[in-house]
């Protein structure tokens, strides 16, 4: 079964740049009206204007996903302007890299609040509208690190593992309403701010050049390359439009690096 999202509303958090913007554009290409949520107000407005200039219907909304009230108010504004969301992509996230002994409470708290609390709050905010419509697609961004934890990223790995467990719980609760909940577990995704930060950390912590870091990690991948933004965006489109019988799953997008 194919869900026609033409004219339907999709919400993408962290949508102003990088993977989020790639996902937003892919959903626009399917005919969806896309709301880009981002903590950076200017970037959200610029990204939405960029999509509108390309002939798509998009709007930017500044919001901090760790602020539950602000999230609910923003989703209500989107519903009032258009209609309730049919698709939610929880892409907003933060990453950090350091030896686990050096992780401080404030760093652990930020990792959980953005990656886990923010995912929960956004799902809560769209659920009532999806229930009224009788369908919905919630797609959460986890990581390979959420399945097999990554060295020097213990707090990030823990948060992304929590996103997978949260997705399982949402899937069970929302299935009676024809709302699916799945998550994506990309490997290292090239040309993103996250990889830029991580590779910088590996350069500093491992004493390698950036090219050596890329070579080191690509060598671990059976298909021989890092994940691309397009790899992730294409999977989002599949789940939003054709993956009707998929729920509660954590799909690997790792070129064979992760297989469980």
Low-confidence parts, pLDDT < 50 over ≥5 residues?
none
SSE order, one letter for each helix or strand: EHEHEHEHEHEHHHE
Q: What is the CA-CA span between the terminal residues?
A: 27 Å
How many DSSP helices?
Answer: 8
Count of distinct strands: 7
Structural class: alpha/beta
Tell me the strand percentage band: 15-25%
Can you tell me the overall shape?
globular
Reported for the largest beta sheet, the result is:
7 strands, parallel
The largest sheet has its strands arranged as 3-2-1-4-5-6-7
Helix content: 40-55%
Name the average pLDDT. Answer: 94
Rg over C-alpha atoms, rounded to the nearest angstrom: 18 Å
Describe it for me?
With 260 residues, the chain is an alpha/beta fold. Helix content is 48%, strand content 15%. It has eight helices and seven strands; from the N terminus they run βαβαβαβαβαβαααβ. It has helices at residues 18-29, 41-53, 68-81, 105-133, 154-174, 193-206, 210-218, 229-241; strands at 9-13, 33-38, 58-62, 85-90, 136-141, 179-186, 250-253. The chain has a seven-stranded parallel β-sheet, sandwiched between helices. The model has no long low-confidence stretch (mean pLDDT 94).
Sum this structure up briefly:
The protein is 48% helix and 15% strand. The protein has eight helices and seven strands; from the N terminus they run E-H-E-H-E-H-E-H-E-H-E-H-H-H-E.
Please outline the helices and strands.
Blueprint (H helix, E strand, L loop, with lengths): L8 E5 L4 H12 L3 E6 L2 H13 L4 E5 L5 H14 L3 E6 L14 H29 L2 E6 L12 H21 L4 E8 L6 H14 L3 H9 L10 H13 L8 E4 L7
Parallel strand pairs: 1-2, 1-4, 2-3, 4-5, 5-6, 6-7
Helix pairs in contact: 1-8, 3-4, 4-5
